[in-house]
Amino acid sequence: MMNPDGALVLFSGGQDSTACLAWALTNFTHVETIGFDYGQRHRVELDVRHDVRASLANLSPDWAARLKDDHMVGLASLGEVSNTSLTRDVEFAMGKEGLPNTFVPGRNLIFLTFAAAVAYRRGLKHIVTGVCETDFSGYPDCRDDTMKAMQLALNLGMERRFVIHTPLMWIDKAATWALAKELGGNALVDITRTQTHTCYLGDREHLQDWGFGCGTCPACELRRDGYVRWCAGA
Predict the structure, then answer these.
(1) With b meaning 16 or more CB within 10 Å and e meaning fewer, what string describes 176-201?
(2) What homologous superfamily is domain 3-172 in, according to CATH?
(3) Among 34, 44, 96, 170, which residue's beta carbon has the most beta carbons within 10 A?
(4) What is the DSSP letter of 179?
(5) 98 in the Ramachandran plot: left (φ > 0), alpha (ψ -120 to 50) or beta?
(6) What pLDDT digit, counting tens, does each position of 29-70 carry?
(7) pTM, 2 dp
(8) Dihedral angle at the C-alpha atoms of 163, 167, 169, 171, nearest 10 degrees?
(9) Residue 212, helix vs strand vs coil
């Protein structure tokens, strides 16, 4: 039996997935999370997940009651077959195909397939992921068309009526900060800034105004620029 009010959130421990988790806790009565260890250079993101989950639960009795099990899936083979700057110690650069070498081919497709398999077993109908087209690195597996195609494929292939939710699809990083403020007030903004991890280099030594990070990798640049724009408009 599927729980019409149950959701599974793809939760990496970063800014975007934290906003998605807060969004799910606001909209569903039963929320579980799933993370993936694929040999990423910034594996420290997995180390902060537990504390971020606990901090969100502490923000609201309703959120605490709704937040349920966490699942971790090992996908070492994805890292082994990927020659990218997220899975190898190489410099960030643009590839010959016009995509940044931070693009891990098939990553979101694989994540969603495993998430759907877990959701199938857990009887969860809704799958929430933090992909977006508005303020991203050009990854084709973050596009709205890709998500719609994946939803159709998963529903056909598993004979279930999953719904893939992408609450960040049409907003930029500045709006993601605004969403955090809307959902959880200044407390959630502070959790996002001081506890989540988004830096591709895994830098947890330097706390910037917008959070921990090296300040120079593509993920840090996007997050910093969004924070500055949000602060200017707040």
Answers:
(1) bbbbbbebbeeebbebbbebbbbbbb
(2) HUPs (3.40.50.620)
(3) 34
(4) H
(5) left
(6) 999 999 998 877 667 889 999 999 999 999 999 999 999 999
(7) 0.91
(8) 170
(9) strand
